[in-house]
Amino acid sequence: MTYLRLMKSDDPFVDAYKEAAYLIPLETFLIPLGTIVYLRLSRKRRRNDINGMVKLTTHGERGYENYATILSRQWNRKR
Predict the structure, then answer these.
(1) Cα–Cα distance for residue pair 63/53, rounded to 1 Å
(2) What are φ and ψ of residue 73, in 5° steps?
(3) pLDDT-derived band of residue 79, with 50, 70 and 90 as boundaries?
(4) Which residues are listed as membrane-spanning (predicted)?
(5) Quick one: pLDDT at residue 3?
(6) How distant is the alpha carbon of residue 51 from its chain centre?
(7) Which domain covers residue 41, as residue numbers?
(8) 43 Cβ partners below 8 Å, 6+ apart?
(9) How far apart are CA 60 and CA 49, in angstroms?
(10) DSSP readout, the chain?
(11) CA end-to-end distance (rounded Å), the chain
């Protein structure tokens, strides 16, 4: 609004610009866009976490170490 008052004072459409600026609040566009970005990032993070668990080695000595580590994390988790 300050920009319109200082730079566009001789423009005949300055009143229309001001009305348009007051008519639609910026949050109307930012909140849905922010929600979409957040949901996409959380979905991507969840998918990566699941893929990381699925790709663990399950055979041999390394598989046993992975299994024991996961079990100990579950049993020692603070509630």
Answers:
(1) 12
(2) -65, -40
(3) low
(4) 20-39
(5) 62
(6) 20
(7) 2-76
(8) none
(9) 23
(10) -HHHHHH-TT-TTHHHHHHHHHHS-THHHHHHHHHHHHHHHHHHHHHHHHHHHHTS--SHHHHHHHHHHHHHHHHH---
(11) 51
Quick one: pLDDT at residue 45? 95
The tens digit of pLDDT for each residue in 10-39 reads 777 777 777 777 767 778 888 999 999 999
Contact between 8 and 14 under an 8 Å Cβ cutoff? The reply is: yes
Structural domains in the chain (count)? 1
**pLDDT > 90? residue 4:** no
> How many whole angstroms separate alpha carbon 69 and alpha carbon 8?
66
Q: Are 58 and 66 in contact (CB under 8 A)?
A: yes
Task: Please give the structure tokens belonging to residue 23.
Answer: 């008519």
